[in-house]
Write a structure and sequence with these properties.
Number of helices: 12
Structural class: alpha+beta
Number of strands: 12
Bound molecules: iron/sulfur cluster
CATH architecture of the largest domain: Orthogonal Bundle
Largest sheet: 4 strands, antiparallel
Helix content: 25-40%
Number of domains: 3
CATH class of the largest domain: Mainly Alpha
CATH superfamily of the largest domain: Hypothetical protein, domain 2
Length: 356
């Protein structure tokens, strides 16, 4: 805390507020404002860590210090809800229990195991990172700076692995942390300011637990729409108690798309997306139709990034050109890198088992 200088705000007649790095905090009126900064932060750490011990969700990657198990879970959870990741994580770890298994696998095998989670670039980068780690005797770098040298490992993932697996006192910043900090401080903070606070506030003796505690608080109590402030361990330190202005969400786009489901015996017609595409490059999907014929055999809704699609599936129609087409045996489908939408359609139509 040496770099942090706090002072009681002179303008505050009650003396129940303090300021650090230009950020004002309110002391809830229950304790003496003359106490030291270390005391303030000490009690904040204790409350948050105590709350975390009693309320954290039991997740398969918690309680381990394996860098690969932690790393893969953090990469999977970026921009994805924990509930959506659980099944994928279990299958992924069963299929690639050690970093060497992941490095040895083909890209198609990795994408097939990832299929349905979206953001496929992450899977490709994870695969490349595993190869680099294996070249370096199978050992992950033990600092956030070293981890950032690996392909696809950004500030968030590097800090998460370094603090949880190796105990480095570095702060993690994701959307949950940004929201908690913004509400606690009552300020709109840039990503840089958030990172600075995270690095200053991280509990030096339990950085991994601290980072997970802040993220857990944001995911389960300090939620985007209706924060449950009365259950929050930081309520007495919080400047806003939920009354925090938020940026309006970017409007989601709506679109329609038609696909062809054509079967021949135990085979299904698929098409491979071009490798130069920015989305789902090289993955396999049902052919896209310019016009469907007859009645749709299935209608589903599907969201990709900021677009909500209404998807219709036809048994016949005029296909759009492009991509490599191939008849694929049903028993091979599970091992193929299918797009999430294709997997969803094939499951709904009973072509693919739900476990695939
Ligand atoms: S008191 Fe409410 S707004 Fe403040 S951090 Fe806790 S849950 Fe979030």
């Amino acid at each position: 805390m040496g770099m942090l200088v706090w002072r009681v705000i002179e303008a505050c007649p009650t003396g129940r507020a303090f300021c650090v790095l230009g950020v004002t905090f309110h002391d809830g009126g229950t304790e003496n404002a003359e106490k030291s900064w270390g005391g303030m932060m000490g009690s904040m750490w204790e409350r948050l860590l105590g709350w975390y011990e009693g309320h954290k969700r039991e997740l398969p990657w918690r309680g381990t210090r394996d860098a690969d198990a932690i790393g893969w879970s953090e990469i999977m959870m970026k921009q994805t809800r924990v509930a959506a990741v659980l099944g994928y994580y279990a299958r992924f770890m069963e299929r690639f229990p050690a970093v060497e298994d992941l490095a040895r696998a083909s890209e198609a095998e990795v994408l097939a195991a990832w299929s349905g989670l979206g953001y496929y670039r992450r899977a490709r980068m994870m695969h490349r990172a595993a190869k680099v780690v294996v070249k370096d005797e199978g050992k992950f770098p033990e600092s956030a700076a070293g981890l950032r040298e690996l392909p696809g490992i950004g500030a968030y993932t590097a800090a998460a692995i370094a603090s949880i697996a190796f105990g480095e006192a570095v702060g993690v910043v994701d959307g949950n942390v940004e929201r908690v900090f913004a509400r606690v401080t009552g300020r709109v903070l840039s990503r840089r300011e958030c990172q600075k606070l995270a690095d200053e506030w991280v509990a030096r003796d339990r950085p991994g637990d601290w980072n997970q505690a802040v993220m857990e608080l944001g995911a389960t109590v300090c939620t985007p729409r209706v924060p449950r402030c009365m259950e929050c361990p930081l309520v007495e330190r919080c400047a806003t108690r939920g009354e925090h202005a938020v940026e309006p969400q970017a409007e989601r786009r709506k679109a329609e798309v038609d696909h062809l489901l054509r079967r021949s015996g135990q085979k299904v017609l698929l098409r491979q997306r071009a490798r130069e595409l920015s989305l789902m490059a090289g993955m396999w999907e049902l052919p896209v139709l310019a016009h469907g014929e007859g009645e749709a055999v299935l209608r589903v809704r599907h969201s990709i990034t900021n677009t909500d699609y209404v998807v219709r599936v036809f048994a016949a129609g005029e296909e759009r050109r492009g991509g490599v087409r191939r008849w694929v045996a049903v028993e091979e489908l599970g091992a193929l890198p299918l797009t999430g939408l294709t997997r969803k359609i094939l499951r709904r139509m009973g072509v693919l088992a739900v476990t695939n």
